[in-house]
C-alpha cells in the first residue's frame, strides 16, 4: 500500500514500545512533576520543617488563592488572550464584600454581590475586547488601572475590616480536618476541569484558541465565547479575592497586586500554550503548586523578598524552557 | 554573499550550454528515526529543460526538494552540482550555490510590503540600513520583468492568495540561480495567472536554467515538461521524455494501478428539471465583490461555479454562508432567509468547505478526532450536556473509515497529515451534520490524484443521497467532470448558466474570459 500508511504503521509500532514513557500523563506533565519533585527535595534538605504535614497544609492554603485565579486565567490563555486585570478584581471583590457587610447584608447576599461584581468586571473586559476588536492585553492593562482605582472609592484608600464569622471561617476553619479554603480549591478544580474537558463550551474554547478563523467558519460564535471566558476569569478572581480577604480578615486596597503574574506563570508552567488551543486545568494546578512551593520554601529559609522575586523568575524561565524543549523533541 | 553568488552563477552560465547536466542526485535516502521518507532516489537534471517530478502526496517529492534546499541533510547518497559535490548546510548555503526554491507553503510576512518580502534577507542596504528606494526600484524591475500584476508597495496581507503565490515566485527568482525548483506553484493560480508563470518558465529555460517542477495537474505537466520522473513510496520509478509518454501511462506509474476514469460515474439520475431548488439567490449583490448573482441548486444536483480568480466566485459562497451581508435575496426552500452568521447558515443545513483548509478549515494542532467533531459537537452530548467521549471517538472512527483517511490514529494531530487527508477531514467535519447544501470551494486544491479520486467519489455519493452541491473550482476538467450544470462567472457577475451535458472547455472559457460572442 501507500508509503504514508507504511510510515504511520512504523511510527505506531515505535509508540507502543515506548508506551510507558510515552503514556499521556508522563508526556504531558513529566517535566513539571519532575520540577516540583526537585524543588521539594531541595527545600526538605535545606529546611527540615518543610516536609511537616502542617507545612503542607500551609502551602496548600497559600496556593489556593493563586490556583483559583489561575483556573480562570487558563480559559483566557487557552483562547490565546491574556487578563492582566485579575489582581485588581481580587481587590475590588474583597472591598465589595466588606462594604456589603458594613451595610448589614448577610453572608449569602454578600457572596452573590461579590461574584456578580467579578462577573461584571470580567464581562466588561471580554465585551470591550470582542466588540471593539481591541487586543485583550490593551483592554486589561487599562481595566487593571481602572479597577485598582475603584477599590479605594468607598474608603478613600483605607483598608476595611470584615467581621462576618461565616466569611472569616472560609480562611480559618476546617472541614473533616482539611481547611475549607482547600476544599474550595479542590471543588473548583473539578468543576473547571469538567467544563473545559467535557462540555461543548469547553471544546469551543479550545477550537477558538486553536484557530479562530476555522472556529468562525465552523459556526462557533467566537465573540460570545470570549465574553464568557473573561466573565469566568472575573468570577474566579472574585472567588480568589474572597479567599484572600477571609485570610486577611479585611479588604486591602493593594490586595492581589501582582497576582495576575503569578496566575499567568502558574498557567504557563502547567503547559498551556500562550498561543492558545492547548492546555489543561490539571497542568494549571501543578503550576500553581510550583509557585506555592517556591514561595513557601524560600519563606522558611528566610530568603529576602527581592531574592525571592529573582529566584521565581529564573525558575519560571527554566521550567518553561524544559517544557518547550521536551515538546519539540517529541514533535 | 549575494555578490559572490551572482558572479559564480554568471560564470557557470557562460560556460554551460543547454542540455548539459547541472545536477545529479545519486542514491539519496532520508529517514526520520525508523521511518524512511526517501530510499535510493536518483535524478539527473539538465540545463534549459523543465524536469517534472511526479508522485502522490507522501511519495517523497517534498523531502527531496528540502534536501536540495538545505533544509534536511540526507542519511545516505550524494549530490553533484555543476560537477562538484554539493552538500548544503542550510537554505542560505543552498541559495549561495545557485539553487532557488519556491515552496507551496506560503512563506511571506503579511505585514510587510511586496518589495520587502521579495528581498527579505538580502535587502539592498548601506551600513545596515535598508535603502528603501533601491529596494522598491529593484522589486519594481523584477516584477515588470516577470510581468506580474502586483504593486510592489502593497502589503502582502492585502493581496489575494493567487497574487501572494506570484510574489512567492518573484522572491524565488530575486537571486540568480542555476536550478529553480517550483513546488506546486499553480495550485492557487487561475488559468490567466498560470499563463504568466508558464511564460516565466519558458524564459528561464531559454536562459539555460534548469527548472524542477512539481505539480498534480496533468494538463500543465504535459504542456511544460521536457523530462518527467515518476516517484512512488520514496523510490525512483522511472524517467521519460514527455514525448514518449501519456497522461494515462503516467498516472498508472504514479499510483501503481490503472485509473481509467478519474471522474466516477453518476450513482443516481440527475434531478428532473421541475424539482424545486433547495437554495437559490435572486439578484444577490455586494458592493465591489459581485453583482446580480442569481443561481440555484436542487437536491441531488452538482452545480459547478467556474470563474477566473477575481471573478467574485468565492465571495458569493461567503454570502451564502452568512459571512457577508449582501443585498438581494437568498431563498431556502423558496422562502427568503437572512444569515447573519455562519452559525445560522449551519443551523439551516448549509456546510462550507472553504478554500484554505489550514486557515479556515482545521485546527492543525488538534487531533483528527477533535477536528472531525468540530461542527457536530451538539450531537455528541449526554446527560447534563457533557460530551460523551465514546460517542466522539466512534463518530471520528466511522468517518476515518468511510472517507479512507490515512492516519496512524484518530489522536494524531491534523497538521501532520498530508494535504489530501487534511481535506478529507474538513469534509468529514461537515458530513457530521448531514448538510442539505454542501458548498465546496476548491475541494481538491493541493491534493494528490488518489485522494482527488476519493473526494470525487464522496461528492457523487452525497449527491446520490440528495445533498445539493455547489462546487467552486478553477480546474475546468473537474468542473466539467462532476457538474450537472455549470455557472460561469466573469467580472463579478454571472456570464452564463450552462448544462454540463456535452459542454466543452472552450465554451466555458469563452464565457469566463468575457469573449463569448
From TrEMBL, chain A:
It is a multi-pass membrane protein. The chain crosses the membrane at residues 29-51, 63-80, 86-116, 128-147, 167-191, 227-244, 264-293, 305-322. This is Ribose ABC transporter permease. It comes from Mesorhizobium retamae. Keywords: Cell inner membrane, Cell membrane, Membrane, Transmembrane, Transmembrane helix, Transport. The keyword Transferase does not apply. It is found in: Cell membrane. The keyword Cell membrane applies. InterPro entries: ABC_transp_permease.
Amino acid at each position: 500500500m501507500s508509503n504514508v500508511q507504511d510510515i504511520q504503521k512504523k511510527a505506531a509500532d515505535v509508540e507502543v514500545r515506548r508506551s510507558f514513557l510515552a503514556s499521556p500523563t508522563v508526556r504531558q506533565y513529566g517535566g513539571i512533576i519532575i520540577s516540583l519533585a526537585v524543588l521539594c527535595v531541595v527545600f526538605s534538605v535545606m529546611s527540615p520543617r518543610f516536609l511537616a504535614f502542617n507545612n503542607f497544609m500551609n502551602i496548600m492554603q497559600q496556593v489556593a488563592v493563586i490556583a483559583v485565579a489561575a483556573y480562570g486565567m487558563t480559559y483566557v490563555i487557552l483562547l490565546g488572550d491574556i487578563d492582566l486585570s485579575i489582581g485588581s478584581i481580587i481587590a475590588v471583590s474583597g472591598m465589595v464584600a466588606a462594604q456589603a457587610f458594613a451595610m448589614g447584608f448577610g453572608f449569602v447576599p454578600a457572596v452573590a454581590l461579590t461574584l456578580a461584581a467579578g462577573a461584571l468586571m470580567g464581562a466588561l473586559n471580554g465585551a470591550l475586547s470582542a466588540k471593539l476588536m481591541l487586543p485583550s492585553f490593551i483592554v486589561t492593562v487599562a481595566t487593571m488601572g481602572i479597577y485598582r482605582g475603584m477599590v479605594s472609592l468607598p474608603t478613600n484608600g483605607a483598608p476595611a475590616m470584615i467581621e462576618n464569622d461565616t466569611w472569616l471561617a472560609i480562611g480559618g476553619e476546617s472541614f473533616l480536618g482539611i481547611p475549607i479554603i482547600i476544599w474550595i480549591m479542590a471543588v473548583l478544580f473539578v468543576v473547571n476541569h469538567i467544563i473545559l474537558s467535557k462540555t461543548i463550551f469547553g471544546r469551543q474554547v479550545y477550537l477558538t484558541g486553536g484557530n479562530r478563523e476555522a472556529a468562525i467558519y465552523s459556526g462557533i460564535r467566537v465573540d460570545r465565547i470570549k465574553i464568557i471566558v473573561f466573565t469566568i476569569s472575573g468570577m474566579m478572581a472574585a472567588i480568589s479575592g474572597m479567599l484572600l480577604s477571609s485570610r486577611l480578615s479585611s479588604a486591602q486596597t493593594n490586595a492581589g497586586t501582582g497576582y495576575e503574574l503569578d496566575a499567568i506563570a502558574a498557567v504557563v508552567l502547567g503547559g498551556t500554550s500562550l498561543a492558545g488551543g492547548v492546555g489543561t486545568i490539571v497542568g494549571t494546578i501543578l503550576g500553581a503548586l510550583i509557585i506555592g512551593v517556591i514561595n513557601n520554601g524560600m519563606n522558611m529559609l528566610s530568603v529576602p523578598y527581592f531574592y525571592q522575586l529573582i529566584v521565581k523568575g529564573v525558575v519560571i524561565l527554566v521550567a518553561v524552557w524544559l517544557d518547550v524543549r521536551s515538546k519539540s523533541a517529541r514533535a | 554573499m549575494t555578490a559572490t553568488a551572482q558572479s559564480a552563477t554568471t560564470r557557470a552560465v557562460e560556460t554551460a550550454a543547454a542540455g548539459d547536466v547541472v545536477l545529479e542526485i545519486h542514491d539519496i535516502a532520508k529517514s526520520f528515526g525508523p521511518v524512511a521518507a526517501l530510499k535510493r532516489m536518483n535524478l539527473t537534471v539538465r540545463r534549459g529543460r523543465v524536469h517534472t517530478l511526479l508522485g502522490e502526496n507522501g511519495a517523497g517529492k517534498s523531502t527531496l526538494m528540502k534536501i536540495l534546499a538545505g533544509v534536511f541533510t540526507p542519511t545516505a547518497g550524494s549530490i553533484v552540482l555543476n560537477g562538484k559535490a554539493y552538500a548544503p548546510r542550510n537554505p542560505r548555503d543552498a541559495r549561495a550555490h545557485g539553487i532557488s526554491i519556491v515552496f507551496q507553503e506560503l512563506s511571506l510576512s503579511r505585514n510587510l510590503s511586496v518589495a520587502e518580502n521579495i528581498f527579505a534577507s538580502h535587502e539592498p542596504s548601506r551600513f545596515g540600513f535598508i535603502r528603501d528606494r533601491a529596494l522598491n526600484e529593484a522589486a519594481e524591475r523584477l516584477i515588470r520583468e516577470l510581468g506580474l500584476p502586483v504593486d510592489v508597495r502593497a502589503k502582502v496581507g492585502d493581496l489575494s492568495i493567487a497574487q501572494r503565490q506570484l510574489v512567492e515566485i518573484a522572491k524565488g527568482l530575486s537571486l540568480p540561480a542555476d536550478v529553480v525548483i517550483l513546488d506546486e506553484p499553480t495550485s492557487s493560480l487561475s488559468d490567466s495567472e498560470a499563463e504568466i508563470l508558464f511564460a516565466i518558465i519558458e524564459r528561464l529555460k531559454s536562459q539555460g536554467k534548469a527548472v524542477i517542477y512539481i505539480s498534480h495537474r496533468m494538463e500543465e505537466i504535459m504542456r511544460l515538461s521536457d523530462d518527467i520522473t515518476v516517484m512512488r513510496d520514496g523510490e525512483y520509478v522511472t524517467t521519460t521524455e514527455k514525448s514518449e509518454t501519456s497522461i494515462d501511462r503516467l498516472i498508472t506509474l504514479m499510483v501503481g494501478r490503472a485509473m481509467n476514469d478519474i471522474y466516477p460515474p453518476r450513482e443516481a439520475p440527475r434531478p428532473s428539471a421541475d424539482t424545486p431548488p433547495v437554495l437559490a439567490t435572486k439578484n444577490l449583490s455586494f458592493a465591489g465583490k459581485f453583482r446580480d448573482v442569481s443561481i440555484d441548486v436542487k437536491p441531488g444536483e452538482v452545480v459547478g461555479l467556474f470563474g477566473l480568480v477575481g471573478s467574485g466566485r468565492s465571495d458569493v459562497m461567503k454570502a451564502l454562508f452568512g459571512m457577508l451581508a449582501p443585498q438581494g435575496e437568498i431563498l431556502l426552500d423558496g422562502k427568503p432567509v437572512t444569515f447573519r452568521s455562519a452559525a445560522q447558515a449551519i443551523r439551516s443545513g448549509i456546510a462550507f468547505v472553504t478554500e484554505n483548509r489550514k486557515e479556515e478549515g482545521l485546527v492543525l494542532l488538534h487531533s483528527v478526532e477533535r477536528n472531525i467533531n468540530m461542527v457536530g459537537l451538539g450531537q455528541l452530548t449526554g446527560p447534563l450536556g457533557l460530551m460523551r467521549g465514546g460517542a466522539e471517538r466512534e463518530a471520528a472512527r466511522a468517518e476515518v473509515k468511510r472517507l479512507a483517511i490515512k492516519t496512524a490514529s484518530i489522536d494524531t494531530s491534523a497538521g501532520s497529515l498530508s494535504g489530501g487527508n487534511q481535506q478529507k477531514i474538513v469534509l468529514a467535519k461537515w458530513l457530521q451534520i448531514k448538510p442539505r447544501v454542501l458548498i465546496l470551494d476548491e475541494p481538491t486544491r493541493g491534493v494528490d490524484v488518489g485522494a482527488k479520486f476519493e473526494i470525487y467519489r464522496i461528492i457523487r455519493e452525497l449527491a446520490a443521497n440528495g445533498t445539493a452541491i455547489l462546487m467552486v473550482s478553477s480546474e475546468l476538467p473537474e468542473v466539467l467532470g462532476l457538474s450537472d450544470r455549470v455557472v460561469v462567472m466573469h467580472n463579478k457577475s454571472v456570464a452564463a448558466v450552462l448544462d454540463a451535458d456535452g459542454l466543452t472547455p472552450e465554451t466555458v472559457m469563452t464565457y469566463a474570459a468575457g469573449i463569448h460572442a
